[in-house]
Structures are given as structure tokens and as C-alpha cells.
Amino acid sequence: MNSTPAVTSSGDTPLLSVADSLNDPRYYLVNFDNVLTWVSERYDDLLDEDERDFIARFQALPVPSRALLVRMVMRKGELFRIDRLAYDEIGETRAALAPLVEHALVDARPDLTLDQLFELFTRDELVGMFRDHLPRPRDRKALLKEALTPVFDQALTFDGWHSLTGQPLTSEVVRLTVMAVCERLRLMFFGNLRQQFSEFVLADQGIYRFEVVPFTPESRAFQRREDIERYWQIHDCRERFDAGHDMDEVLAALPVRLEDSLWLEARRGRVIYAIARHCERQGELARAAGLYAQSGHGEARIRHIRVLEQLAEHDQALALCIAAQQAPTSEAERQQAARIQPRLHRTLGLEKPPSEAETSARRCDLILPRSGCVERAVRGHLASPEAPVFYVENTLINALFGLLCWEAIFAPLPGAFFHPFQSGPADLMRPEFYPQREQHFMRCLARLEEGSWREIIVQRYREKQGIQSPFVHWGALDDQLLALSLQCLPPAHLRCWFERLLTDIRANRAGMPDLIRFYPHAPEGTLRYEMIEVKGPGDRLQDNQKRWIAFCGRHDMPVTVCHVRWGDDEGMT
């Protein structure tokens, strides 16, 4: 079977091969085999008996049977109609199924509920099956199920449904019995359940390219079997909550607070936060308050304060509000707490708290011909050959940071990179991201003072073109924009922006102004750029935009807020 390297970004020896999806009809089987090999080698000490047994049974199967099982694994659900498991490269479906049934990887006689029948079969097929039990066979599918539910309330096998209805099903149905094991193996390979096996195909076809990072035993996603089980437990709880299961049962199934794993505790906190939000929306405020207090989610404390206000627990709300400003989890939390505190002071009859003076940007008002894109209209109005304007919202500063600090972002630290399909480190959004790499980032940022930063950025721009990055959106950066940025943006300002990014990557890589205008011919020693936030009719500054503008104001960075009105709204022709 032909294969090509999955990762080819820097010429290193490929760490994993993927099948040629355009020329190998069983590419998916080659890729699945690679996953099993990778997991077997890297997680040999953590695999449980079920996982080892599955890998052994799978590898002993004939090739057509292995291919059919992988096809099923990559489809949705566990139940499959045999007549819809036809693949040219596999051959006769029943022949391929027989070893899967023999090895108990597939159940040939699964119990099927009425709901499952309605998911697997078409309306016309169902009318044929239940023709003697439908008073109004012309009804829509949902109404047909509603009519049959009181009568057929038990799960039956294929033969059982045949006997009960007097009509055969139009296709036999089989159930994949090893989906949970395969999902755990996927979790160990990717370190999450967000990524699918399709990553192999995207890499093979060159749609996605990834940085090559060396792997060590310490760089595995999981170091203990217990962490795999706890991840799965938290994931299952979220799935059950989203499916509408009883909240008390979901909460009881969650693991206790995970003091020894920050990232798993963060996942647990997100589940608790989601349940708390649901309780708040349902008016169960006391319960919501208790859950917010247990969640480490970044927005939990502010929501807790708001719920306490509604419960008239103003003293407790104020104490939390003050704590949020003295030791905020983010700038956003501090900003929101500062907005709430005056209201709490009024309610409690306290003196108004001191407020920080807001830094305001220069204001520009424009009346322009109506356009479908207000940013494009402003750019066209302001741009000139001497002062070109670019649309760069949340892309330019991030890209310059990503290019200058490439080696720090992709440093092969434990727990950061554990498979070849990562666009960035797994801990990018965790509190420990910067502290663990502080020395790496300090060396990168020092180039802004040393004078080598322009050459480094250009070199990375050429070498890494098209490789996935959490900061560089390649489609938004071209040679002209890069050259003007390097010419006109002061390194001191770049350092301020980059350091702010590192304080809270999730929040601070958004909210940046829409446009940037360069003045490449301005005298040395003067500011040669201006950032412009565009606001169309009725639009207002968002909180994250206000924080960026205030930050720029504190560091004497030129920002203008441009308010636009349409000419036809002003009675102009």
C-alpha cells in the first residue's frame, strides 16, 4: 500500500505515515492500523485488558473484515443496516461480516427499540413494516412514531419484530460492540475527543500541514490510566447532561475535585458551569449559586455574583466582587466586577467606590455611501498611496507574535505535543502555558531589543508558510502587509502587545482594532501607524475592544474609533 508522510513542514524524518487517500481505496484501514501501532507503542503500560484484547482480535482478522470494521467505526452510531455496508474495495458484505460476528466485534442479533427503527429506516419502509398497525399510514414520520409508541414499547431482535408485526424488516441490522474501546483508543492518540480520524486524510491531501515536533515518553497526553478514566468520566457526564439526563445523576457521576490535574479539573469545571447556567435559566437560583461556587470556569465567579444579587445576598456578592478585582482570573472578570460593584454599593447604602478613569481613543465621524461592509467602506475612504490601509482585525498582531515566538510556541515540552496533527500545544489555553515556557519566550522577545526581530519574522514567514498555527492566519498576511508592519511598527509597541497576549491568550487575541493605516514616509522618530476600530450605525464597542483600546492608551499607541453613518440615512443623494 502506498503511503505519504503526514508531516513534512520542516524536512524532518516523518514521525507517522498516512495512506495515500487518492490512490489507495483502503486508506482508512492503513491509517487506523497506524493509530493502533502508535497507541500500542506509546501507551503499552496504560492499556487495559479490553483494549489489548481488541487490538489482538482486530489484527487477526482478514483484511476485508478489518476494513469493514473501520468503516463502521468511522460512521455515526453503533447500529448499521447490512444493505448500507456495501463498499467496492471490501467485496461481499456478509463474507466480511462473518469473522466480525465470530470474534464478537459485531452483534448480528441486536435488540432494536422503536426509536432506533425510525432512525434506521425510511418512512415508506416503516409503513410497510407496520401496515397492519397504522390507522393513518399517510401521516408524517413523527406522527407515525407517536401512534406506534404506546403499542410497541419494548426492544426486540430482527426476528422479534418480524414475528410481532407480521412483516419482515427491509434489511437486517447489526451492532458494533467495540465503539467504546475504539473511542478510548482515539482519545489516547489525539488526547481529546474533538479530533477525528479524518485528520489523516486532511494531512495526506495537503489541506492541513503541521509543525514537526519530536515526541518523548513524557509528551504523552496521559501519564496515568486514572487520567484516561477520569477524562472519559467527565466526557460521559457532559454527553448525558446535553442529552437531557437527570442533573442530580450527572453531578453524582462527576469525579470529585481533581487537585492533581489542572486540565482535567478545568474540564470538570466546565461541566459544572454548564449545569449551573441551566439551573439559572430555569430559575433555580440557589442551586445555581452553589454550583458556580464549585466551578473554576473563567466566567463562574461573575455569574455567581449576579445570581447572589438576584437572591438579595448582597454582602456575599460584594465580597466576591472585591475578590474578583483584587485577584481576577482575567481582565474581562476584573472589568465586569468593576461594573457591578457601584450597583452593590448603592444597594447596601455604601459610599460609591473609586473608579478608574477610562482611556478614550481619538474619535472620527464619517458619512459614507451605503456599503455591504462598513470596514471595507472605511478602508476605501481612508486609504491612499502614501498611507495604505489594511483590514487586520485580530490577525496582524497575532501573526507577528506567532512568527517571532514560533520556537517558544512549538517547544517540545511534556504534555504539549503528543500526536502529529496539532496546530498548537495542548496546554495553550491553560494557566501553566506561559510559566512553563517563560525562558523560551524571553529569548524570543529579547530579539526586539537586539534588532534581529525583523529577520527572524521574515525567515519564519518563508519557512513555515501554510503550517497550522494558533496565531498565524496565513490568508490574512501577505508580503506587502508584512513589509509595512516591519517598517512602521515600533518594536517597543510589539513587545507590549505580545506580553499582553501572554497574560491571557484566550481573551487577548481578540478585540483588536479592525484596520491599520501605515505612514511609511513619515520621519524617523514619529509614529508611523494608526489602528482604527470601525463602528457602523448602531454598533458599540464591545468589552474586549474597550480593554484593548484602554491598553493602547496607557502605552501611547495611536488608536482611532471611527463611527460611520450612511449618507442616504442623512437625506443625502
Write up this protein.
Its cofactor is Mg(2+); Mn(2+). Pfam families: FAN1_HTH (PF21315), FANC_SAP (PF18081), VRR_NUC (PF08774). InterPro entries: Fan1-like, FAN1-like_WH, FAN1_SAP_bact, tRNA_endonuc-like_dom_sf, VRR_NUC. GO terms for molecular function: metal ion binding; nucleic acid binding; phosphodiesterase I activity. The chain is α+β, with helices and mostly antiparallel strands and 573 residues long. Among the domains are: 3-183, no CATH class; 362-570, no CATH class. Helices cover 50% and strands 8% of the residues. The protein is built from 26 helices and ten strands. A five-stranded mixed beta sheet has the order 6-10-9-8-7, with helices on both faces. The chain has a three-stranded antiparallel beta sheet with strand order 3-5-4. The chain has a two-stranded antiparallel sheet with strand order 1-2. Helix 13 packs antiparallel against helix 14 (285-294). The relative contact order is 0.08. The model is unreliable at 1-14 (pLDDT under 50).
Offer a quick outline of the entry:
With 573 residues, this protein is of the alpha+beta class. The protein has helices spanning 27-42, 49-59, 63-73, 93-102, 114-120, 123-129, 141-148, 158-165, 179-190, 198-204, 225-242, 247-253, 262-281, 285-294, 300-310, 314-326, 331-348, 374-382, 396-404, 406-409, 433-450, 453-463, 479-488, 491-503, 505-508, 543-554; strands spanning 3-5, 17-19, 79-81, 106-107, 173-176, 362-368, 389-391, 515-518, 529-535, 559-566.
